[in-house]
Design goal:
With about 180 residues, the chain is mainly beta. The protein has strands at about 1-5, 10-15, 20-25, 30-40, 45-55, 65-70, 75-80, 85-90, 100-105, 110, 120-125, 135-140, 145-150, 150-160, 165-170, 170-175.
């Protein structure tokens, strides 16, 4: 992986990215998040099993820290516009649902407490100001666009596929 300057394409960093997938640099360029994939040998099963953990590190891979291990199946990470928070969806063992979690550098926090959810929350998208998060809310019968505002989830319209993003702080783009 080569990180290059916008002007002149001078190499600013390079690292071996063979086990790094879905790399997302923070808008500040000071951090990156990625899925680290590796096979590990399970002695009880007598076979190799994949391990896909969500890792945060500096822009050149230094100071790597595993945020979520494989059992959480972390997916769809997105940095906030100011680069201070990371939103993603993870599997919650207690409910079996996928939920959006936000990491602010100290600890992960669920948008909705796990006991209070009855549907999957996936594909988080930050508003341009970073004040709101839109996501896809999957129920047993359909998928809906949803927005988390002031501690409440507002279900919008039905969607066909993930919420695409925001036009501005008040307009969400929803396929369907």
């Amino acid at each position: 992986l080569y990180a290059v300057a916008a002007e002149g394409c001078a190499t600013q960093a390079s690292l071996d990215a063979r086990r790094m997938h879905h790399i997302r640099y923070a808008p500040t360029g000071q951090q990156m998040a990625y899925i680290h994939r590796e096979l590990r040998y399970d002695r009880e099963a007598g076979e190799y099993v994949p391990d896909s953990s969500l890792v945060l590190s500096g822009p050149q891979g230094q100071d790597a820290e595993t945020l979520f291990q494989d059992k959480r199946h972390a997916r769809h990470s997105r940095w906030s516009p100011n680069g201070t928070e990371l939103a993603l969806d993870v599997r919650v063992e207690a409910s079996g649902h996928r939920q959006v979690v936000v990491y602010d550098g100290s600890r992960p926090a669920f948008l909705v407490p796990p006991p209070n959810t009855s549907a999957d929350q996936v594909h988080p998208r930050w508003s341009p100001s970073g004040d709101r998060i839109a996501f896809t809310l999957r129920t047993d019968d359909a998928a809906y666009a949803a927005v988390r505002v002031k501690g409440q989830t507002r279900r919008l319209s039905r969607t066909q596929g993930p919420v695409w993003g925001w036009l501005d702080d008040r307009s969400v783009v929803v396929p369907g």
